[in-house]
């Protein structure tokens, strides 16, 4: 992870110094790659270190360029972004992944998030939002709202929903009561500061609980915690 400016619990960038965020762009459309490179290249705290045109090139590109964040197209001809994301997340200390799509509710997007992607962006997302997303995931902050997560899950046909719910409840059963409360709050899209106020604990304690939840459940990021809480049916009003 780059030593970069941080992000507050409200999502706003905070002051910081250090190396720029290293970004790898993966898309089979040269025009999309050029457009993203132009957007990202205009930011002083972000550096596009490499490009790839297919998921099959991702592993070698990550070894060569050591990116902090990968912008990953979902649909590519040889190896799609889902398989490439799954491969990356199995690496020790993998880069963060943001998947790119032209669809709001794409089954592949949901699968990529379950595989460990930190979020997704539509290819027509405004430049300022693309920059904000890269900065957020580079410091380990989620960029997917609970409303978007809910719409994705509701829109995608999931014939294994009952089995997934049982599995999610079984996994969450590994947690202490307090850790489970934190996991559900993460699933509802609460920031660390909001969880702190809601559960009457310090922000540092919230962060420690989140870290233990990720370790106990063998998950990569808060998005996966949120999806697990959604699968378990624990985030509904």
TrEMBL record:
Residues bearing the modification 4-aspartylphosphate: 73
Biological process according to GO:
phosphorelay signal transduction system; regulation of DNA-templated transcription
For the HTH luxR-type domain, which residue ranges apply? 168-233
Q: Which domain of life is it from?
A: Bacteria
Q: Can you name one GO molecular function term for this protein?
A: DNA binding
Every copy of the Response regulatory domain together lies at: 22-138
Q: Gene3D superfamilies from the xrefs?
A: 3.40.50.2300
Keywords in alphabetical order: DNA-binding, Phosphoprotein, Transcription, Transcription regulation
- PROSITE patterns (alphabetical): HTH_LUXR_1, HTH_LUXR_2, RESPONSE_REGULATORY
Taken from the record, one Pfam family name reads Response_reg
Q: Which PANTHER family does the protein's record reference? A: TRANSCRIPTIONAL REGULATORY PROTEIN NARL-RELATED (PTHR43214:SF24), TWO-COMPONENT RESPONSE REGULATOR (PTHR43214)
Supply the name of the protein.
DNA-binding response regulator
Highest classification ranks of the organism:
Bacteria, Bacillati, Actinomycetota, Actinomycetes, Micromonosporales
């Amino acid at each position: 992870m780059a030593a970069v400016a941080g992000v507050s619990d409200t999502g706003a960038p905070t002051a910081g110094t250090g190396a720029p965020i290293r970004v790898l762009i993966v898309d089979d459309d040269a025009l999309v790659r050029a457009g993203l490179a132009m957007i990202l290249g205009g930011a002083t705290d972000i550096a596009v270190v490499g490009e790839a045109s297919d998921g099959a090139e991702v592993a070698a590109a990550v070894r060569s360029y050591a990116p902090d964040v990968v912008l990953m197209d979902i649909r590519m001809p040889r190896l799609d972004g889902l398989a490439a994301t799954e491969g990356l997340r199995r690496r020790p200390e993998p880069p963060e992944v943001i998947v790119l799509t032209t669809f709001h509710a794409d089954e592949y997007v949901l699968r990529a998030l379950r595989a460990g992607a930190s979020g997704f962006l539509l290819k027509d997302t405004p430049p300022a939002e693309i920059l904000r997303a890269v900065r957020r995931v580079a410091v380990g902050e989620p960029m997917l709202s609970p409303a978007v997560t809910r719409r994705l899950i509701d829109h995608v046909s999931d014939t294994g929903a009952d089995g997934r719910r049982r599995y999610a409840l079984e996994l969450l059963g590994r947690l202490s009561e307090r850790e489970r409360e934190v996991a559900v709050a993460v699933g509802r899209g609460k920031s660390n500061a909001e969880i702190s106020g809601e559960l009457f604990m310090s922000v540092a304690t919230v962060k420690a609980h989140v870290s233990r939840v990720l370790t106990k459940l063998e998950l990569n990021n808060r998005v996966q915690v949120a999806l697990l809480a959604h699968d378990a049916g624990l985030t509904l009003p």
